[in-house]
Every structure is written in C-alpha cells, then in structure tokens.
Write a structure and sequence with these properties.
Number of helices: 8
Distance between the termini: 30 Å
Radius of gyration: 27 Å
Strand content: 35-45%
Helix content: 10-25%
Length: 418
C-alpha cells in the first residue's frame, strides 16, 4: 500500500505572546517563570501562551491535493511552517516524505544579495538536487517565471510579484515529491495565477501530494480533491473540497448575514431562498450542466394579485451572471395568499466551476413597487470537469474541415452530467 507523502497526526503548536525585557530586573523573573512553565504538562498554557494549532490531523497521499481554508488567524500559515520544518510541533507528529517544493512566504529562502540565477541554484541545493539537475531545468524555470530579463539582478531589487513568480517556478519546476503552496500567489497577475493553477493541477495529476492554502475558493475547487477548514487553530471540517468550501462559506455567510428586514407595509415577504436538486433536496454543490431548482419561499399575509418574482445569480467576486424573472418571462402567478413557494426550474445549470450567490426579490404586478428583496441570500458552489473560463459554460463542439475534400469531423464537448 502506498504511503502518504504528508502525515499530520494530532499536532498541537503553542506560542508565547511577545515579551520584551529592557532590564535585568525584568529578565530574571521572566526566566524563573519559564523554568517553572517547563515543568507543566504540554497541554497546559500559562497566561502568556496560546494554541495556534489544536489537535489537527490529516494525510495527503500521492495525487491528492488538500486545500486549507479559514479566516485570518485560523492557523493556516502555522501549519505550513510546521510542514516545511520551519517550526517544530509542541505535540503530535508531522512528516513530509521526499523532496519538498514550498512557497510559503514571498522571497522565503531567497538570499537578498544573490541574483535570481544564484538563488535558483541555492534553492535547488536546499532541496537536495545536484547542480547538473538544476542546470538542466534552469531555462524552464526562468521561462515559466517570466523574469528572464532580470535573472542576473539581486532579488532584493525584485517586486513582490517577481519574487512570487520566481519562488513558485523554483518550487514547482524542480520536480518536487511534495508541493506546499501558500496564498502568496495572490500577488501575481491573473495570467500567472492561471499558469500556477495549471501547473499545480499537472503535478497533482502526476501523483505529487499537494497542500494549497488560499482564500481563493474557486481556485481551491479547481485544484483540490479535499479541503480542511480551520477555525481558531482547530479543524472544523475535513472532507471533499466542494463540501469544505460550502462549510466555510455557510459559516461565514450565516455569521455575517441575517435576512434583510422586511417592510412593515409589505403584503408578501420572502421567508427563505434555496438551491435544490431535481428531487427537492437542498444542495450546497451542483455539477455544471446538471438540472437544478431555485426556490423562493414566501408568506403572503393578505392576497396579492400577480406578484412578480425575480432571481439574480452573482459569482463570489461580484460578477453578475444571470437575472431571471416571471415578469420578463410573462408568466402570470395569479393571486397568491398565505405561505407558499415559487420554483425556478433549470434544465441545465450552465455555470463554470466556482462559488456563487443567489438573490431574490418580489415586486408588484407592474414591477413598480418592491415588496421584498433578499440579496445574496443563498451560497452554492459549482463543480465541473470542464476547463472553460468565464462565468458561463456553453454547450459546444469543434469541427475540422479537411481541404480540399471538405470532410467534416466534429467533436462534442458538452459538459459531463452525473
């Protein structure tokens, strides 16, 4: 049985809050406190200590990609430093087997006075590679990084984006056995970020265990097979990447948002907004191209003649993807009264992979008066095997015409539906 490349078993890590001693009078009592503290069990904390990581366990095997997500201060960067052996665990076992390619801080490991070229060879040597191996891959590293014009310049003169480009290129192009990447990729431009995502996907597909820390949830969905949600140093969820993203988004969305207040004089109010599968079950994750439903539940406290229902879908980054309404479709709801719901049926959800939010509104029959509006009321994620970019996944095919016979060969590229 193949052993996992990364083992993180019951790991705890504590830190001391900052102490400064400006005199011998302050230093001696501090040393005494530390001596006493040393006799305490490792599970106990003094007033100056806190747990940055608390009993976290996971493994990453060949071809697996683990995305680590969570709010700022959750312990993500500490876990990366533990994995990269920059920090030792207080308790538990942390093992990374094989040659590790890592980018956990901008310019981490770079010597500022050495040139980009010299730092490539330095990092390769740290990874345990021979000079001849590094030289054989040097041109590919420089080409991928896009800093070829400055490869002979000391890296202390590089911008943060140039440092990140070169750092990732070294980590991902020196054939690592394990790849560990932090959010520092966010300093790069969109084109380079896409290059990095493609490269990480290639490495994972080839069997390289990968750990990726990011606030870019669509990137986590795109790259990772599993996800770990951290909250205050503890594992709040560990499972599929799609379920982890939904768990994180639902928690932050619930804590940050309540249903918007209703107008006191409104005759009809939205009580909930849901995304459902064809069987009517609420689902946090939908496969692109699959059928689905969006349900607006309401309560009409008195009869309302021909109310108009509208649904908007936005991507997490604010891109407006779709707006659909009963008024635009000229669909007459008739008179509604009491509790009920309106379902929007989508035979194929033609969105690309990513994170989305549904908004819902109700107007009067003329569209002039807004009865109720619930913005970004339900978060959901879309997964797909397609590599399409943008917000919309289009049914498409390619045709090759052979000249001069003009024989056509057509290849269908419709999204896969499960």
């Amino acid at each position: 049985m193949t052993q996992p490349g990364i083992v993180f078993d019951g790991v705890w890590k504590k830190f001391h809050r900052g102490e400064r001693h400006d005199s011998l009078r302050d230093l001696i009592p501090a040393l005494v406190r530390r001596a006493v503290r040393g006799a305490k069990p490792q599970t106990e904390l003094t007033a100056e200590e806190f747990w940055a990581v608390q009993d976290v366990s996971f493994t990453v095997g060949p071809g697996e990609a683990l995305g680590i997500i969570g709010p700022n201060g959750a312990g993500k960067s500490t876990i990366l430093k533990l994995l990269n052996r920059i920090l030792p665990p207080t308790r538990g076992r942390c093992e990374v087997r094989g040659r590790t390619g890592a980018l956990i801080e901008i310019a981490a490991g770079f010597h500022p006075d050495l040139t980009g070229r010299e730092n490539v060879f330095l990092q390769g040597a740290i990874m345990g590679m021979r000079r001849a191996e590094i030289a054989a891959k040097f041109d590919r590293i420089v080409e991928f990084s896009g800093v070829g014009d400055f490869i002979g310049t000391p890296v202390k003169r590089y911008s943060s984006g140039m440092n990140a480009r070169l750092g990732f290129s070294i980590a991902a192009r020196l054939d690592p056995d394990v790849l560990i990447i932090d959010e520092v990729l966010s300093v790069g431009d969109a084109g380079f970020q896409e290059q990095c995502i493609v490269r990480m996907r290639e490495l994972a597909t080839s069997g390289v265990p990968l750990v990726f820390v990011s606030h870019n949830l669509p990137a986590v969905l795109d790259i990772c097979t599993r996800g770990l949600v951290l909250v205050r140093g503890a594992a709040a969820f560990l499972g599929s990447a799609a379920d982890a993203v939904h768990h994180y988004r639902a928690a932050t969305w619930t804590s940050a948002r309540a249903l918007a207040p209703h107008r006191d004089d409104s005759p009809i109010r939205i009580t909930s907004v849901q995304v459902l599968d064809p069987d009517g079950r609420q689902v946090p994750v939908i496969r692109s191209g699959a059928p689905s439903r969006i349900r607006i539940s309401f309560d009409a406290i008195r009869p309302v003649d021909r109310p108009q229902f509208a649904i908007d879908i936005h991507r997490d980054d604010g891109v407006y993807c779709s707006g659909i309404g009963t008024r635009l479709d000229r669909w007459n709801t008739g008179v509604v009264e009491g509790p009920g719901s309106i379902d929007l049926h989508l035979s194929r959800l033609m969105l690309t992979r990513g994170s989305y939010l549904v908004s819902a509104g109700i107007h009067d029959s003329h569209g002039a008066r807004l009865f109720d509006l619930q913005e970004r009321a339900f978060p959901f994620s879309v997964v797909s095997d397609s590599r399409d970019l943008g917000a919309v996944s289009l049914d498409h095919s390619w045709t090759y015409v052979r000249a001069p016979q003009l024989q056509e060969e057509t290849v269908s590229c419709s999204p896969r539906v499960f």
